[in-house]
Hints:
The protein is an alpha/beta fold. The chain folds into two domains: 2-249, Rossmann fold; 259-290, no CATH class. It is built from ten helices and eleven strands. The protein has helices spanning 13-22, 53-57, 74-91, 111-124, 139-149, 168-181, 198-208, 223-229, 245-249, 259-263; strands at 2-6, 26-31, 41-44, 62-65, 96-102, 130-135, 155-157, 162-163, 187-190, 196-197, 215-217. The strands form three sheets. It has a seven-stranded parallel beta sheet with strand order 3-2-1-4-5-6-9, sandwiched between helices. A two-stranded parallel sheet has the order 7-11. Mean pLDDT is 89; it is low at 276-295. NADP nicotinamide-adenine-dinucleotide phosphate is lined by residues 6-13, 31-33, 45-48, 66-70, 77, 81, 100-102, 116, 135, 137-138, 141. Residues 7-139 form the NAD(P)-binding domain. Residues 260-295 are annotated as: Disordered. InterPro entries: ComplexI_NDUFA9_subunit (IPR051207), NAD(P)-bd_dom (IPR016040), NAD(P)-bd_dom_sf (IPR036291).
Amino acid sequence: MRILVTGATGTLGRAVVPALVRRGHQVRAMSRREREGTDVTWVRGDLASGNGVRQAARDCDAIVHLATQARRGSERMDVAGTLTLVSAAREARVSHLLYVSPVGADRVPTGLPRHKFEAERVIRGSGLGHTVLRTTHYHQWLDRLLRRLAGLPAIPVDPSVPWQPIDTAEVAARLGGLLADGPRGETLEFGGPQVLGTDELVRTWLRAHRSRRLCVRVRYPGKLIAAQRAGALTTDATPLGRISWADYLCPPMPLSDDFAVEHTASPTSPANQPEGDPDLRVYGGDEGYQRQTRK
Length: 295
Ligand SMILES: NC(=O)c1ccc[n+]([C@@H]2O[C@H](COP(=O)([O-])OP(=O)(O)OC[C@H]3O[C@@H](n4cnc5c(N)ncnc54)[C@H](OP(=O)(O)O)[C@@H]3O)[C@@H](O)[C@H]2O)c1
């Protein structure tokens, strides 16, 4: 499939582009800046001004729309920019528009979530084949946020705020699967495997980074945080992601190549003793039986 990815340079886009290439798709990656790459065709496009968007969508079978403007200008970018993209997609007769939005977009009538919900409505009303996937916060985004907070004299922690972080690699894989399924005309949710309070989230992060940075208990302000505190940004929709926050921060060691050999009980182990016949019992050291299996 020929697929245009908007937001290809973002937190999620950096996982989605290589995942789609690995699946054998021809990927056209959009950015506002000039870029070069070998596996993908980079195109310049700006959803706020509309420059380059039509050309970017031309001849594409599908669009994965990830571009967003989280700080300032989310209305102009996320809502008006999505309208611009929809009109380019119609012109190009794109058969599937796949949009990523945050969990809670429908429950938090303020700021970025409100604009994301409006953009979802633009997509649902576009008449195009579409799927909307709402996700919880990304490990990679939270990790960056905590790195910034760790630069402060103390990390502010509000234990009453829950998070359900998910890995961008798993979201990328899910998007690949949704593209293969074709447009579902549905809005789906995809969250991480665990809901963690900010205190546990930060504690795990500090442990992983062997940091003793001081933490200070606070109450985070704002309407969005109040909604998050009430659970509006978490989901119990299944399937959930499988990579936990702790696994993302400290990935389990890969199993060694001789895993099977190491797991085979030695001839002298209790597991290999012939039942009921003490004469056939094999005596000797059993060191292989409990050998450590991870390097
Ligand atoms: N981050 C999270 O934890 C999280 C959680 C849930 C849902 N989401 C959703 O996931 C999607 C991807 O988010 P993300 O975190 O990957 O975003 P991000 O890291 O903030 O990246 C934003 C992307 O949007 C592009 N962009 C910004 N303004 C643009 C414009 N005017 N025209 C064209 N492209 C523009 C940027 O590309 P250039 O700068 O290269 O032009 C960049 O690639 C969004 O829909 C977001 O709401 C994110």
